[in-house]
Target: RND family efflux transporter MFP subunit
Amino acid sequence: MNANPNPRRRWFWPLAALALVILALAAWLLLRPADEAPAAGAGATSGNGANGAPAEGEQPRPALTVTVTKPQRESLPIRLQANGNIAAWQEASVGAEVNGLRLSTVNVNVGDAVRKGQVLAEFVRETTQADTLQARASLMQAEASYQNAKADADRARAIENTGALSKSQVAQYLTQEKVSLAQWEAAKAALGATEVRLGNTRVLAPDDGVISARGATVGAVVAAGQELFRLVRQGRLEWRGEVTPSEVDRIKIGQAVAVTAATGREVQGKVRAIAPSADPQTRNILVFVDLPRHGELKANTFAHGAFDLGQSDALTVSSQSVVVRDGSNYVFAIDEQNRASQLKVRTGRRVGERVEILDGLKEGASVAVQGAGFLNEGDLVKVVQ
Model:
């Protein structure tokens, strides 16, 4: 048996251990986080000072990239703003003209458009038809009586001077003729009344329009004069704007008005009339504006109006340039060094994407547009087209 071990086996385990240590050190150097780099080395290569400010001789970096423009002179419309309600131009009350009859049919409902003379509802006609037949029979009877009395009166007049009849008998025949004639005329009037009553069993629309209210119910027995329907005549609506006495002198008949309904729909109307007196409670004066027919306009709803009073010259900027902070309006002017200066301005009219600047901005200044909402006083910006 050999007493000396193999030389290769004696050096194997130390070399293997050394290889594992080298591999572990290499893996740690490759996978260590970047923030574990020596602080001294970072400080030596950085170009910033202790507070992060640019080092001496280094150019400052812009805080934001913005676009700029100059204020423009434009002609903007002058408008007088007012509030009010949309109402029917005229409403017609359609009621029952017969008494004690039962409604048999109702042909329309709220919102239906109707034509003049259209049948809206009908009452039961049997009773009225029977009255009409009876009145016609009475008329025929009265006519026969009159013809008989007239024939007697004619014979009496023919023999009046012969002495065959006394004067009292002649007068009696003549009087009977007049009575029969009066009874005949009364029968004609009675028949006409029953025919009118029969016609009133059909409720007709008094004008073209739209049904705005309905009180008619099938089977109901109504009294004469009771309202069955309410009709917006000709489907016309109007806006009744409220203006102060100091503003009413600026409004003229025929003036254009942009009316915005509660749905947001804007329509163009014209001033039709101005109330001669103010409301005793609000002290405002009503202005009546005719509106075009439109499905989104509803009576008794709120609407906002703007009276067109002409146009005037104005200094305007883009609406993106106006920044609202702490309840005030600001714009940022960019100087030649690309520094932002916050300017407090007073705004006026707004038309589309343009805002009128009344005070606080010079006409030739460069104003930030895109990115203006993120700027602060003194910020350095980069201007792009």
User: Anything to note?
Assistant: The first strand starts at residue 64 and ends at 66.
